[in-house]
Amino acid sequence: MSDTKNIPSTIVAETESDAGHLAIFPNAAIVAMEVKGRGAVASGFYKSGSLVEKCPVIVFTPRESPFIYQTILSSYVFQWMPAGYTALALGAGSLYNHATEPNTRFEIDTNEKVIRFYALTDINEGDEITFSYNANS
Question: Which distant-in-sequence residues (6+ apart) come within 8 Å of 44 by Cβ?
């Protein structure tokens, strides 16, 4: 059994800079967006090519996946391998919106059960983080 008493916990009080943020992650803040509903904006600068986020995933089997597609979660899951599996990215990853000219791309790692998002362009603090829903590019 691991000793957890030495792991620091963080309690974040809302500050003026947090105002309007629905959630705060180390890499992104989740904000309400006029047209898109919710989205993620960068909490710092990301140079093109750099890792923006490494998201652990919850993987759903082919037996479970049809049920996911009958819920609101269908808008937030990724197709997984082997065929028929789906995955929900934890962290901010499932809340990144689509863009035809995205500023990130993602890589699926089925062995580690993570999705990594990499900057395609320089991303400045406050920029919306987006990727293409149409391709794993």
Answer: 27, 125
Long-range contacts (CB closer than 8 Å, 24 or more residues apart) made by 134-137: 134/98, 136/105, 136/106, 136/107, 136/108, 137/105
Domains of the chain, first to last: 16-131 (2.170.270.10)
Give the containing element (helix H, strand E) for 106: strand 104-109
State the Rg of the chain over Cα: 16
Q: Which residues contact 47 (CB under 8 A, 6 or more apart)?
A: 119, 122
Kindly report the pTM of this predicted structure: 0.80
Phi, psi of 119 (to 5 degrees): -70, 130
- Residues 8-61 have pLDDT tens digits of 433 343 444 555 555 667 788 888 888 878 899 999 999 999 999 999 999 999
